[in-house]
Design a protein that fits this description.
The protein is an alpha/beta fold. The protein contains twelve helices and 13 strands. The N and C termini lie far apart (59 Å). The structure holds pyridoxal-5'-phosphate.
């Protein structure tokens, strides 16, 4: 008897494993596994979300007009070049589906976001990986891997799980080295956390070129992961493509309403950014003082390398933290088996984390 079978390659996809959110028996959970926003969304976004509950019988605005205008106003962009999605994951997936297919190559770097190989394979393309240098994207290594089959290059800037970033000059150099038919996708999920002068998430590059797309999200600094809302800034031709293939109502009404309110509450966003910076610096100092190797980060997480001895390695640290109800992210599947990725939480959460890791490092 025959049974339905997915297209060749689909069963080669390793499912994405989300960060832990619970552990049995813990009195309280400190979830530091998914780079969510420590302070949560703006209270005004929650009010707008609740109000949107009165209109659930209506389809949302298919064009997300108000939201795109709000994004354009906040970031100085052109609203007609913005497309919203059900999380930036949706937009990344649609871009892969639309621009890559069987026989094509989709390029990204060694410690790149794990969604990239999934969506490359889903599109029928072949994922190609370029090495990184010191936990940072290496532009020359990426350019070395470009072939006539390359269709898309995904670069998370800043990177997840590395927390590092490339200055705009390096992104421009990467773009200049790519043939015109290759789409450069700059994934700026953590862009709002970066305060470095030499950083740009890529809006100018999109405006000046036909082959650059920038993706962004409301899941991180805006604290709206649960609503699933992302957006991209793209050349008109790519906007046209995305509007042909996306679901007509891919962003819910409550998500649109909450996001408009979240953008308007710039004081909340500023507070989130400042608190994150304070507690990222504090956490990095505390963990470094314990002898741990904390990679410099411009994001709302740090990647921490543990010693090699079995009593104090990343696996043991993870088990110790989880037993205490503190949930970091193991990143062996990102090629970093000796490290844990730890989201920057609230002051109280970071103090608990540091105290717990101090006990862990002191144990024989
Ligand atoms: C680098 C990177 N890109 C994209 C995403 C997806 O974000 P969204 O929640 O908008 O789908 C994440 C989420 O963790 C991420 O780390």
């Amino acid at each position: 008897m025959s049974t339905p079978a997915p297209r060749p390659g689909i069963l080669d996809i390793d499912p994405y494993v989300a960060g832990d959110s619970d552990t049995p028996g813990a009195a309280r959970i400190i979830k530091l596994s998914s780079n969510e926003c420590a302070l949560g969304p703006s209270p005004k976004a929650i009010t707008a979300f609740r109000e949107a509950g009165n209109h659930l019988y209506r389809y949302p605005d298919s064009a997300a007009t108000e939201l795109r205008a709000a994004i354009a106003g906040e970031y100085g962009l052109d609203a007609v070049k913005i497309v919203c999605g059900n999380g930036s994951d949706e937009l990344l997936t649609l871009l892969a589906q639309a621009y890559a297919g069987p026989g094509d190559e989709v390029l990204f770097s060694e410690h790149g976001f794990l969604v990239y190989p999934i969506i490359a394979r889903f599109a029928g393309g072949a994922p190609v990986v370029a090495p990184e240098c010191g936990l940072t994207v290496d532009v020359d290594a990426l350019l070395d891997k470009v072939t006539t089959k390359t269709r898309i290059v995904f670069v998370a800037n800043p990177g997840n799980p590395t927390g590092s970033y490339l200055p705009v000059t390096e992104i421009v150099r990467l773009h200049e080295g790519l043939p015109g038919h290759v789409l450069l996708v700059l994934d700026g999920a953590y862009a709002e956390y970066v305060t470095a002068d030499d950083y740009s998430p890529g809006g100018d590059l999109v405006n000046a070129n036909e082959n650059v797309v920038m993706t962004r999200t409301f899941s991180k600094i805006y604290g709206l992961s649960g609503l699933r809302l992302g957006w991209c800034y793209a050349p008109s031709a790519a906007v046209d493509v995305l509007n042909r293939v996306r679901g007509p109502f891919n962003v819910s009404g409550p998500a649109q309403a909450a996001a408009v309110a979240a953008i308007a509450d710039t004081a909340h966003t500023e507070k989130v950014r400042a608190e994150n910076e304070t507690w990222r610096a504090w956490t990095s100092r505390q963990l470094s003082a314990l002898g741990l190797d904390v990679a410099p980060s411009v994001t709302n997480f740090v990647t921490v390398r543990f010693p090699g001895d079995p009593a104090h390695n990343a696996e043991a640290a993870n088990a110790f933290l989880v037993a205490e109800g503190i949930l970091p992210r193991r990143i062996a599947n990102y090629g970093l088996p000796d490290s844990l990725r730890i989201t920057i939480g609230t002051e109280a959460e970071m103090r608990e984390l540091a105290a717990t890791l101090s006990r862990f490092m002191e144990k024989p």
